Structures are given as structure tokens and as C-alpha cells.
Amino acid sequence: MRMFELERITKETEVRGALCLEGEGRSEIRTGIGFFDHMLDLFAFHSGFDLTMRAKGDLEVCDHHTIEDCGIVLGTLIREALGDKRGIHRYGTFMLPMDETLCNVTLDLSGRPYLVYHCELNREKIGEYSTEMTEEFFRAVCMNCGMTLHINVLYGTNDHHKVEAVFKAFGRALKEAVRVESDRVVSSKGVLE
User: Which of 26, 51, 74, 133 has the least C-beta neighbours within 10 A?
Assistant: First the structure.
């Protein structure tokens, strides 16, 4: 079983997470930010991973530290659960429609962190979730996982639908990328770092 648990404590947040790649899409999420909890639930469901994420942060300041630190933890969980990445498909892509919105997420578990993010959002907040934190969350995931990630919301008008489409498509693309299909490392260099 490819799984990992992690506790990250700073002066701003305490985040505890656990991830099992061979899961059933179960989640136990409590970050104190309702919409963000919903997005992580959807990510777990659509990836098929089991995910636990409990965060206590300085929400009296704002949601930035909590969301970013959850991204750091999720990225680290994915990286550590994958180990040497032997046999994984490596690449994943998914095009997801959500009502009027169309989103494409494409990724490479290359070991090289890079984020391309195209998603125009008009609302400042969805519930208590700052929409600008969508990009920051995925940047933290990329940097701590070693993932190249391209997020492109091609069109849409409803910001809730756009963000939800991103999290769902990310889950589906990652599910494809971590799938074990051989006993070799999918790299001409012989290693995915």
C-alpha cells in the first residue's frame, strides 16, 4: 500500500494529514474553511484516494496560511506515498465540464515543480474561502510534490463551478498519473526525482 502520514506544526498552523493512494475515495477533512473542506472532499472522491486533513490555523488573520500549509502537506504526502515512482504512468490529464465551465488539468510527476495556472475568478470569496488561494494552494502542492501542473479553465461564468472543476479534474488527472502499469521508472534518465 502506498501511503504516508505527516504532521506539520508552525507558529501559524498545525496540519495533520494522511493519504492512501490505494483507497476508496474516503475523506475526513476539517480545516475550519467550509468551502475548502468541500474541495478536498471532492479531490479525494475523484482521485479515489483516502485523505485525512485536519488543520488548525490563524483564521482570525485570514485563510492564507491554513490553505497554503494544507497544500504543502498534500504535496508532501503525494511525494512520499509515491516513493521511487517505479512503474507509475507518470502523466495525467483530464478535461472536466461543470455546467457552463470547462476545465483541463494536465500534470507530470517528473520531480520538477512548475505551475501554469489560467483561471480567472471574479469573486473575492466563496463562503470564507479566498478565491485567490486556489492558485496558492496548487503552487504549494507542486513545489512540495515535485509536480509539473497545468490548470486551464477554458471558459465559465460561475466561480464556484470553476474552482470545483479544478479540484475534481486535478483528482482525476492525478489518479491516472499514479496508476502502476509496469515495473520500470518512466524516464529516459532511469530516475524520477
Answer: 26
Q: Is the dihedral of CA 165, 168, 172, 175 positive or negative?
A: positive
At residue 183, the pLDDT reads 78
Domain definitions of the chain by residue range: 3-178
Strands 114-118 and 148-155 turn out to be parallel
**CA distance linking residue 49 with residue 68, whole number of Å:** 20
Smallest CA-to-CA distance from 171 within 20, 44, 21, 36 is with 44
Please name the residues in contact with 124: beta carbons below 8 A apart, sequence gap of 6 or more.
Answer: 130, 131, 132
Reported as a pLDDT band with limits 50, 70 and 90, residue 182 is confident
Does the domain spanning 3-178 belong to CATH 3.30.230.40? Answer: yes
